[in-house]
Every structure is written in structure tokens, then in C-alpha cells.
Write a structure and sequence with these properties.
The protein is an alpha/beta fold. Helices cover 46% and strands 17% of the residues. The chain contains 10 helices and 13 strands. The strands form 3 sheets. It has a 6-stranded mixed beta sheet with strand order 7-9-11-13-12-10, covered by helices on one side. Helix 5 runs antiparallel to helix 6 and helix 8 runs antiparallel to helix 10. The longest helix has 79 residues. The protein is rod-shaped and about 115 Å long. The relative contact order is 0.08.
């Protein structure tokens, strides 16, 4: 649930007008206070104060529409009172009175937001006209505030709905990603389970090499189940925004070994050649281990499935001593650099390439390949989520993907990641 304010602090809705408008008169002389009360008591609810301090105290719990202030008073001056009233209620209209008119006091009053400036003694017609203009300004201000309030309220409602819809969409994406990611190890688990079941049915007793093989298969099966839990935990951590639970580096050769083992009985590898070349010297990449394994699984399975004809897929890791030149990679129908804006392009860097000698990627989808729901596989073999997941994981690690393709000559996905220090 989202907890949002009903309106912004910059455009608080004015209270609905009920009964007479309220006038505050602040003057340290009783005569002007009483005179103004007599003149305006039929049109206003009158509040009288003999000092700026008292006026501010009375205005604390009341919404004042019009204030008439004497400039020269004991205690805080009318100018100071004007400033404090405007701080509390910017929409209040204030008229200033003084028996000692100077240009400086007039400028000060106007600078602090007074709407008019009158001399003592005042005549009734002049003060009525000034108050009438101030009240009209007040009404216009209230109307404007009311409109702004409604606009802000509508904006908040729209934003609230957008956030709720975004939360629903994000959760949907996350759950779809979980299902997609877990599907890979489940495919391997299913394969192992099928082999084990076949062995059990065909054998009256199990011993020797067959027993050792089954024990190895059960160990692989257990590893796949553990990996399913790891994937689920990663996504739950993402939902809770709990980055502390997610590791930040992994040994590359170990991941490549796991990849080779995980795909040893994957259906996509049947009749295809998979070559995995590890680093000569072990190094760690600055990325979560489960994330890197997911990336390599997605890309390698895609490469194995790029055509049903026999072909070779080569996964190769290497260390880069020099940063790449992003400007030299011009996005086209044959080449792209994915993750360009946030790419941390500094050495030492680790590059892992997944290359196939298949038919290449059609130009019609090359530019949209990492969008969600884009797939070249049949409906029962692809969801279109894999590459969007790969992109998100690599970008979140500050990495990039250099993708190249050639019609009839295959494609290469080259992952660029920072080396962990």
C-alpha cells in the first residue's frame, strides 16, 4: 500500500468560506481599533489586538482574510507583524496604517506583501474602498488556491494510480522472470529424473558403475533443487530491496564449470557441440554468482537452440587489459552495444563470449532483441523473457553486452564485466 498526502504543502486548499470573512485589526491605540470595528462589524467578523504579539497569537488558531496593521507600535512593529502573518498565511491581504508616512516605510510594507498603504487619520470612504479591493483580491486568491488544490489532488490521484499500476506490472515482471529462470534448472532436473526412473525400471538390481552413475545424477539433481531455492531467494531479496543479501562477486571459472555441468544433459545440447573455455588464471567478476550463471545459461541455451541443424557453440572467457572503445561500436543491423549509458568501462575487465556458427539473427528483430516478449522460438519453447532478464542483470552490475551477427555465419554475445578487486 502506498501512503500519499492528500495535497502538496505548496498549494494547501483554503477552508471553505462560511459566514462573514474575518478581519484582524492590530493597533496599539484603542481609538483606531474601535473606529474600524464600528465601520466593518456588519460585513466582517472582527478581531482586535493592541500589539503585534497579541495579533499573531490570535491569528494562530484563526484563518484571517483581511488584516489592518498600524506600522508604528510598541513591541514588534507592523512591518514585522506583516511578515509573520504572510509566513503563516500567504493568502492573507494586509493594509498598513501610519500617522508618519515615509517612502521607506511604504516600500517596506509593499515589499513584505501589503496590498495597500493608508495614512491616519483615514476617512471612511477611503478605508472602505481599500478594504473592498483587498477582499476582492482575497476572494480571487482563494479561488486560485482552490483550483490549484484540485489540480494537485488530481495529480496525486494520477500518480497514486500510476504507482499502483507500476507495482502490479513490476511484480508481474518479477514473477514471470522467476518462472522463466526456474524453468532452466527444472528442465535439467526433469532430465535427470527421467534417466534415474528409466534406470530403475530397467534394472533388477543396481550396483557397481551404475550405482556410482546414479549417485552422481542424484547429486546433480540435488544441486539443481538448491539452485532453484537460490533463484527464488534472489528475487525475494529484490522485492524487499535487500541488497545486503546479494553477493557482489564470483569466481568466473567456477561458474563456467557449473554451466558446462548443468548443460551436460540439457535437451538443447543434443546433437550440438558445446565448448567451454575457462580463464588461464582464475579471476572474480563483480557480479552476483547466481546472476552470472543465469546470464550464461540463457545465452548459451539460446545459442544451442538457434538452429536444429548441428552446429557449434563456444563459451570463452578472457581478461581485457585495455578498455573497449564504445564510440567504435555503432548500433546497426549487425552490431549493438547493450547497456551503453551505465557501462563501467575500465580495466581490469572480464569478457565472456557466447558464439555460435548458426544462421545469425534476422535484421527484423535485431534491434528489438532485448525487449520483453521478443522471441524467435516456437510458443512452446520460448517466452521472450530471457534476453530482457539478461539485459537487466548485466546493466545492474554496470556491465554491457557487445552483440554482433552475420547472416549465415552466426552470432556472438560478448559480456563485459568489471573484475572484482
Amino acid at each position: 500500500m502506498f501512503s500519499l498526502p492528500l495535497y502538496s504543502s505548496d498549494s494547501v486548499a483554503p477552508p471553505a468560506a462560511a459566514g462573514k470573512p474575518v478581519m484582524l485589526v492590530v493597533d496599539d491605540e484603542d481609538g483606531p481599533r474601535q473606529s474600524l470595528k464600528i465601520v466593518f462589524k456588519k460585513d466582517f467578523e472582527m478581531i482586535l489586538a493592541k500589539s503585534g504579539e497579541e495579533g499573531l497569537e490570535l491569528a494562530e488558531d484563526r484563518h484571517i482574510d483581511i488584516a489592518i496593521l498600524d506600522i508604528m507600535m510598541t513591541g514588534i512593529s507592523g512591518i514585522e507583524t506583516l511578515g509573520k502573518l504572510k509566513e503563516r498565511n500567504p493568502g492573507i491581504e494586509v493594509l498598513m496604517l501610519t500617522a508618519y508616512e515615509t517612502l521607506d516605510t511604504a516600500r517596506a510594507a509593499l515589499r513584505f506583501g501589503a496590498c495597500d498603504y493608508l495614512n491616519k487619520p483615514f476617512d471612511i470612504s477611503t478605508i472602505r474602498e481599500a478594504v473592498s479591493k483587498a477582499l476582492e483580491r482575497r476572494r480571487l486568491t482563494r479561488a486560485s488556491q482552490s483550483v490549484n488544490y484540485e489540480i494537485d489532488r488530481l495529480k496525486v490521484e494520477i500518480e497514486d494510480r500510476r504507482l499502483r499500476e507500476e507495482l502490479i506490472r513490476t511484480k508481474g515482471d518479477i514473477y514471470a522472470s522467476v518462472l522463466h529462470d526456474i524453468n532452466s534448472p527444472l528442465t535439467v532436473i526433469s532430465g535427470f529424473a527421467e534417466v534415474l526412473n528409466s534406470s530403475l525400471q530397467d534394472s533388477a538390481s543396481i550396483e557397481g558403475e551404475q550405482l556410482a552413475s546414479m549417485r552422481a545424477d542424484i547429486a546433480h539433481l540435488s544441486a539443481q533443487v538448491t539452485r532453484c531455492f537460490e533463484i527464488s531467494k534472489r528475487y525475494l531479496s529484490f522485492l524487499r530491496h535487500d541488497a545486503a543479501e546479494i553477493g557482489s562477486e564470483v569466481a568466473v571459472n567456477q561458474i563456467l564449470t557449473d554451466l558446462d555441468e548443468l548443460l551436460s544433459r540439457h535437451p538443447a545440447r543434443e546433437n550440438q557441440t558445446l565448448i567451454v573455455e575457462r580463464l588461464e588464471d582464475e579471476a572474480a567478476a563483480a557480479i552476483n554468482g547466481t546472476d552470472l550463471l543465469q546470464i550464461l545459461l540463457n545465452l548459451t541455451v539460446n545459442a544451442l537452440q538457434c538452429t536444429e541443424a548441428p552446429h557449434t557453440v563456444r563459451v570463452q572467457a578472457q581478461l581485457l587489459a585495455q578498455p573497449i572503445e564504445p564510440k567504435s561500436i555503432v548500433d546497426s543491423s549487425r552490431e549493438r552495444l547493450i547497456g551503453r549509458p551505465g557501462f563501467v568501462n575500465r580495466t581490469p575487465m572480464i569478457a565472456i563470449s557466447i558464439a555460435d556458427d548458426g544462421p545469425g539473427i534476422p535484421a527484423s528483430i535485431f534491434g528489438r532483441l532485448f525487449d520483453e516478449q521478443i522471441t524467435t522460438k516456437p510458443a512452446d519453447r520460448g517466452t521472450g523473457l530471457g534476453l530482457s532478464i539478461v539485459k537487466r542483470l548485466i546493466v545492474s552490475a554496470g556491465g554491457a553486452i557487445h552483440l554482433t551477427t552475420q547472416h549465415g555465419a552466426g552470432s556472438t554475445f560478448r559480456i563485459l564485466l568489471q573484475m572484482a578487486t
